Amino acid sequence: MIRLRDIEKSFSGNPVLRKISLDVRPGAVTALIGPSGSGKSTLLRCLNLLETSDAGQLEFDDVTLRFVKGQALDKAKVLAVRRMTGMVFQNFQLFPHRTAVANVMEGLIVVQKWPTDKARARALALLEKVGLADKAEAWPLTLSGGQQQRVAIARALAASPKLLLCDEPTSALDPELAAEVVDVLAALAREGTTMLIATHDLRLANRMAQHVAFLQDGVVVEEGTPADVFGAPKDGRTIRFVRTLG
Ligand code: ADP
Ligand code: MG
After folding, report:
1. What are the tens digits of pLDDT across the range 122-174?
2. Where is the ABC transporter domain (predicted)?
C-alpha cells in the first residue's frame, strides 16, 4: 500500500498542496483528475521525491518518510522510494541521442549496474511488450509521439517498479496516438500493475481507474469509484468539472 498523509507543498510561499491524503491501492489504477494548476504534477513529484514535501507523511510499503520543512530525509529511504517508482511524463522525455532500446536500458545500466547483455535483453522484452520490437534501434525523433510514449513506458517499467506514475500520458498526443498509449496502459492494468495516473482526460480515467480522486487548488475535493465521481458527483466543484469536460 502507498499512503500519503497530510502532504503540504508550497512554492515561494504559495501553497500548492494543502494537506493531501491519498491511498494508492496495489494492483489497481488510481486516477488523479482536476483542472490545470490544481497540483496533480506536484503531487506525483512529491510521491516519487522529485520534490520534497514541506509536511506530512509518505508510506510506501515498509518505508515511511515524515516531511518536516528544512529537515533532511534519510537517503536510503529516498533511494528506496525512487527505486519503487517509475514515471511517465506528458512530453515523453526520452534521451534524443540514444536509440529506443538504449533509452530503456539506461537506468538498468547506470542506476542498477546491470551488465549490458542482461539490460539489453530486458529492454527488448519490454519494447516487445509495448508493441515496438521492430523499433529497438530507432532514434526517438523518428518515432511518432505515441511510439515515443510507449518507449517511455517501457523505460519506466525497466527496473520493475511497484508503482507506475503517469503524468498526463496522453495529453501531448492526437486521439489515435493517444489510443495506442491507452491500450498499452490498459494491458498493464490488466496484469495488475499499480498505477497513479494524473490526467484531465475523463474518458481515460473512466476507462482505466478503479479509484478516482478529484483535486482542486491543492485539495482532494472528492474521491470514489468512477461511477461515484463521474456518475453522481457530490461536490459542486466536481460537478462543474465533470460537466465541462464530460
Ligand atoms: P497540474 O499538474 O494540476 O496542472 P501543477 O502541480 O503543475 O498542477 O501546478 C500547481 C501549481 O504549482 C501551479 O500554480 C504551478 O504554477 C505551481 N508550481 C508547480 N511547480 C512549481 C515550481 N517548481 N515552482 C513554482 N511553482 C510551481
Ligand atoms: Mg500537470
Report:
1. 999 999 999 999 999 999 999 999 999 999 999 999 999 999 999 999 999 99
2. 2-242
Phi, psi of 195 (to 5 degrees): -135, 145
- Kind and range of the H or E element at 181? helix 175-190
Determine the distance separating the centroid of ligand 2 and the alpha carbon of 36, expressed in angstroms: 7
Q: What is the pTM of this model?
A: 0.96
Q: Tell me the CA–centroid distance for residue 133 and ligand 2, in Å.
A: 30
Determine how β-strand 211-216 pairs with β-strand 219-224: antiparallel
Task: Compute the distance between CA of residue 103 and CA of residue 26 in angstroms, rounded to an integer.
Answer: 27
Grid coordinates representing 172 are: 501531448
pLDDT at residue 245 above 80? no
Distance CA 41, CA 28 (A): 20
| 4-33: burial string, b at 16+ Cβ within 10 Å, e else | bbebbbeeeeeebbeebebebeeebbbbbb
DSSP conformation class of 225: -
What ligand 1 atom has the least distance to the C-alpha of 35? Answer: 3
